[in-house]
Specification:
Layout: E1 6-16, E2 21-31, H1 37-50, E3 57-59, E4 71-74, E5 80-86, H2 91-100, E6 104-109, H3 113-120, E7 130-135, H4 137-144, E8 150-158, E9 161-166, E10 169-174, E11 176-179
Parallel strand pairs: 1-8, 5-6, 6-7
Antiparallel strand pairs: 1-2, 3-4, 4-5, 7-11, 8-9, 9-10
Helix pairs in contact: 1-4
């Protein structure tokens, strides 16, 4: 018998002073049986960091579907305008994503994230539309502690730091720009 995903509901308030975006989102996240609280909350943080007023950013089937990222955004024609990965994806997967989407962003986290980036950065040098951010392992562990089946989460972003708070505490996550590209260079 296959295990089912666990449903999490989040009322997310975003105040992103870096991008001048302020909004509220009622979200439903499906947590795959093999997914950790840390990955779930990194996906939620990634949503907050990429959310905008057009509301086309959506969570995908994630771990259940190998050809989909954690989040993506499509334009009205169905073209993928944004592909967001969390974790430490394979370089071949990222190159393929860069060919499919106008912009690809990775939020790398975990205790081996810096080693992963050192190993794949040269292989990804030709990807003009790839941006990679590192999230410190201690901070994402703090973020994981905020996970609840029904949660109210506030994310305040200023100068590359996200202050995340919920009913069970708070976490401060520095978003480290390892490679920033806008896709036009």
């Amino acid at each position: 018998m296959a295990l089912r995903s666990t449903i999490y509901k989040a009322d997310l308030q975003v105040a992103d002073n870096d991008r001048r975006y302020y909004g509220s989102h009622s979200l439903i996240l499906a947590r795959h049986p093999s997914e950790t609280d840390e990955r779930l909350m990194v996906r939620l943080l990634a949503f907050a960091l990429q959310a905008d007023a057009d509301e086309r950013l959506v969570f995908t089937r994630g771990l259940s579907e190998v050809d989909e990222p954690a989040l993506w955004r499509h334009d009205l024609t169905g073209a993928i305008t944004l592909w967001v990965e969390t974790g430490l994806p394979d370089d071949r997967r990222l190159l393929k994503a860069c060919g499919r989407a106008a912009k690809v962003i990775v939020y790398a986290y975990g205790h081996t994230a810096e080693s992963w980036w050192a190993g794949v950065s040269s292989k990804l040098a030709r990807a003009r539309n790839l941006t990679v951010y590192g999230l410190p392992a201690a901070a994402t562990r703090e973020l994981a502690a905020l996970a609840e089946r029904g949660m109210e989460v506030n994310v305040n972003v200023n100068d590359g730091v996200a202050w995340v708070s919920g009913a069970s505490g708070e976490a401060t996550v520095e978003i480290l720009p390892w490679r920033v590209r806008d896709g036009s260079a």
